[in-house]
Amino acid sequence: MSIDTATAAKVAKLARIKVEEEDLPALAQEFNAILGFIEQLNELNVDDVEPMTSVEPMRLKRREDVVTDGNQPEKVLANAPDAREGFFAVPKVVE
Q1: Which value, in Å, is the radius of gyration of the alpha carbons in the chain?
Q2: Mean of the pLDDT values across residues 4-18?
Q3: Which PANTHER family does this entry report, sorted A to Z (predicted)?
Q4: Quick one: which H or E segment has residue 83?
């Protein structure tokens, strides 16, 4: 697969990246280089390779999933523009 300047411009537009017209050929060339690297990776046989989280074997730290209030309600409400009775006070939006 080869990326031309029109496709590079479309990708830049979809990514909301402003690319000048004179820079589009270089961008297309970079996209083609990336696709070439991906094609090289696709040639590798990785059927017997287990996914890793790091280059060193390790287990991820786990903790029990419990809901807490953070034990800091005063600190949280200190940033509120208006707090009453331990809660954020907001303007009424439904009549």
Answers
A1: 26
A2: 95
A3: GLUTAMYL-TRNA(GLN) AMIDOTRANSFERASE SUBUNIT C, MITOCHONDRIAL
A4: strand 83-84
What share of residues in the chain are helix, strand, coil (percent, to 5)?
Answer: 40, 5, 55
The answer as to whether 63 is a domain residue is: no
Biggest CA–CA distance in the chain, Å, is: 64
pTM here? 0.51
The total number of structural domains in the chain stands at: 1
Is the pLDDT confidence value at 7 over 90?
yes
Examine residue 88 and state whether it is found in any structural domain, yes or no: no
- pLDDT digit string (tens) for 52-65? 777 887 777 888 88
Residue holding tokens 């074997």?
A: 57
CA distance 75 to 69: 12
Q: Which residues sit opposite 88 in a β-bridge?
A: 83
